[in-house]
């Protein structure tokens, strides 16, 4: 009887040791996959998760205005601001600018210094939490 108790205890120890070792191992997160960006030579529209749509023309108006403002603006706390959240498959530093001031949700166009549109995001603030950023899809 003592032998079966010792055997059972050692089996249990072996199982728990593996579980313990497994739970300590670091979890490796998958590398982020850059979001696709529209071809600047093609027409496109963006549609956000809430159904709101923006045309290439609307987005380019904001990008051109923001790019012009970047030449004369020396303040670091006004739009356009450097974008460092989601990755996009476009070269260069990314910037973002609000599409239109007003009540939430806010929509932001993301672009590079070559005035290429990388994407569009929808931002919603949640009380006492981080903002929720949702990428909008292009078509």
Mean pLDDT: 81
CATH topology: Nuclear Transport Factor 2, Chain: A
Strand content: 15-25%
* Biggest pleated-sheet summary: 5 strands, antiparallel
User: How would the global form be characterised?
Assistant: globular
At CATH level 2, the architecture is Roll
CATH top level is Alpha Beta
State the share of residues found in helices, binned by percent.
25-40%
Helix-strand category: alpha+beta
Within CATH, the superfamily carries the name Microbial ribonucleases
The order of strands across the largest sheet is 3-4-5-6-7
Radius of gyration: 25 Å
Domain count: the total is 1
Low-confidence stretches: 9-26
The end-to-end distance, rounded to whole angstroms, is 72 Å
Count of separate DSSP helical elements: 2
Which series of helices and strands comes N to C? Answer: HEEHEEEEEE
Structure description:
This protein has one domain (1-139): Nuclear Transport Factor 2, Chain: A (Roll), CATH 3.10.450. It is built from two helices and eight strands. It has helices at 2-24, 56-72; strands at residues 45-47, 53-55, 81-82, 94-98, 106-112, 117-124, 132-135, 137-138. The strands form two sheets. The chain has a five-stranded antiparallel beta sheet, with helices on one face. It has a three-stranded antiparallel beta sheet with strand order 2-1-8. The longest helix has 23 residues, at 2-24. It is globular, with a radius of gyration of 25 Å.
Précis, in short:
The chain is an alpha+beta fold and 139 residues long. It contains two helices and eight strands, in the order H-E-E-H-E-E-E-E-E-E.
Which short descriptors sum up this protein?
2 helices; 29% helix; 5-stranded antiparallel sheet; alpha+beta; Nuclear Transport Factor 2, Chain: A; 139 residues
């Amino acid at each position: 009887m003592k032998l079966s108790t010792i055997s059972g205890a050692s089996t249990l120890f072996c199982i728990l040791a593996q579980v313990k070792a497994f739970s300590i191992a670091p979890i490796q997160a998958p590398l982020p996959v850059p979001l696709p960006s529209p071809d600047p030579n093609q027409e496109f529209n963006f549609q956000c998760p809430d159904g709101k749509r923006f045309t290439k023309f609307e987005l380019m108006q904001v990008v051109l205005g923001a790019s012009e403002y970047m030449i004369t603006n020396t303040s670091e706390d006004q739009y356009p601001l450097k974008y460092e959240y989601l990755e996009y498959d476009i070269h260069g530093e990314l910037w973002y600018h609000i599409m239109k001031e007003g009540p939430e949700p806010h929509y932001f166009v993301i672009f590079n210094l070559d005035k290429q549109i990388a994407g569009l995001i929808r931002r919603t603030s949640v009380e006492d939490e981080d903002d929720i950023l949702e990428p909008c899809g292009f078509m």
